[in-house]
Amino acid sequence: MTSYLKIECFIGEPTKMYVNASNGQFSGSSEDYINIEGLRTLGTSLTNFPSSVDSCVEYFSSPSTPEESSLTLRFYCLDSSGHCCVKIGVRNDQSRFQYVNSVSFTLHFDLANLDRFTNTLKQTNGSDSITLILKGKS
Fold first, then answer.
1. Is the pTM here over 0.85, yes or no?
2. Rounded CA gap, 124 and 117, in Å?
3. Contact 1/22 with Cβ under 8 angstroms?
4. Could you give the CA distance from residue 60 to residue 57 in angstroms, rounded to a whole number?
């Protein structure tokens, strides 16, 4: 099964974000309006990640209320050999539903895939839209 994190953004104020993610066993999708500067900051924070075994980078689509974020990401190291993963939280709280749907799972990835994800993320300036894909390990 395929494991991935896909974020599509249509850049404006606010930016429309669509998220699809799966680790092969669990999956989730959501949409939200975000401030694109938060994603740009994530790209900067992930440059040269990991710098140590204790490295951790977090992203919340709603930084003022993280528990209500439609997307939460926590990048961290598993060991001193550079094996890394991201804990992904996807939450869909649209008014047409009477309840909140959410899922949380871990995606393991190669650092080369993280570099591609980060480099694409850094190229958001001047773009109307962007698609970010972090491919997981099979």
1. yes
2. 12
3. yes
4. 10
Q: How far apart are CA 127 and CA 8, in angstroms?
A: 12
Q: What single DSSP character describes residue 54?
A: T
Q: Per-residue pLDDT tens for 73-115?
A: 999 999 888 889 999 999 987 655 667 788 999 999 999 999 9
Q: How many CB atoms lie within 10 A of CB 65?
A: 9
**pLDDT tens figures, 11-35:** 888 889 999 999 999 999 999 989 8
CB atoms within 10 A of CB 94: 11
Closest CA to 127 of 12, 46, 2, 20: 12
**Cα 23 → chain centroid:** 13
Tell me how far apart the alpha carbons of residues 12 and 33 are, in angstroms, rounded to a whole number: 10
The residue type of 129 is S
Collapsing DSSP to helix, strand or coil, 109 comes out as: strand
Residue pair 2/46 in contact (Cβ under 8 Å)? The answer is no
**Alpha helix (H) ranges present in 3-137?**
36-45, 111-122
